[in-house]
Design goal:
This protein is α/β, with parallel strands linked by helices and 182 residues long. The protein has five helices and seven strands. It binds ligand FNR.
């Protein structure tokens, strides 16, 4: 089973990317969880470039999503929204449709007390309009993240448990082959 993890932060020491690395360590061995590192190499979205000859970085991004059984996002909130680099990547997928029926989990993490809920809500709306499968059990906001992550490790037991439940729900959605409601 292949799961693609996508961080909304390009920072080397990103807490959101650290959470995805931590999920990779928690995942059972039959799950191949890889973290996408190409967001910053995608060109700015332009509908005039969205044709049969899209540039290779965009084609690779689309192929990777299509070949993945499920997707996990973990993103910060910037100015009450989804970071531009992540939204840009998603805009390239609108016309090609790789998110259609794709089991997807959405996490946001922030040092603030609301855990980036506005970015989380906005990302969920974008994914739902692209027909991704995102149920409430796979949506998580992690507040006060600075106190819960150390290096690549989620140190807070409750947060770790929430991540295990979210991953388990995603795996069950993949195995149910899209029978669940969106
Ligand atoms: C932020 N941050 C932030 N946090 C938040 O909860 N709501 C917000 O609207 C914003 N806005 C915002 C804008 C900009 C430009 C920056 C750089 C930061 C703080 C942000 O959540 C914090 O830096 C996180 O640690 C970023 O996540 P990573 O990079 O650690 O994954």
């Amino acid at each position: 089973m292949k799961i693609l993890a996508i961080s909304g932060s390009l920072r080397v020491s990103s807490s959101n990317t650290a959470i995805l690395r931590s999920i990779a360590k928690l995942a059972p061995t039959n799950i191949q969880l890889s973290i996408y590192d190409g967001l910053e190499n995608l060109p700015h979205f332009n509908p005039e470039l969205d044709n049969d000859n899209v540039i290779s970085s965009v084609q690779d991004w689309r192929d990777l999503i299509r070949e993945s059984d499920g997707i996990i996002f973990c993103t910060p909130e910037y100015a009450h929204g989804v970071p531009g680099v992540l939204k840009n990547g998603l805009d390239w997928i609108v016309s090609s449709g790789e998110f259609m029926n794709k089991p997807t989990a959405v996490i946001s993490a922030s040092p603030s007390i609301d855990g980036g809920i506005r970015a989380n809500n906005s990302l969920v709306q974008t994914l739902r309009v692209m027909m991704a499968k995102t149920t409430e059990e796979r949506i998580l906001c992690i507040p006060a993240v600075s106190a819960k992550v150390s290096g690549d490790e989620v140190t807070d037991p409750l947060t770790k448990q929430s991540l295990i439940s979210l991953l388990d729900n995603l795996v069950r959605s993949i195995l149910s082959r899209g029978d669940e409601a969106v």
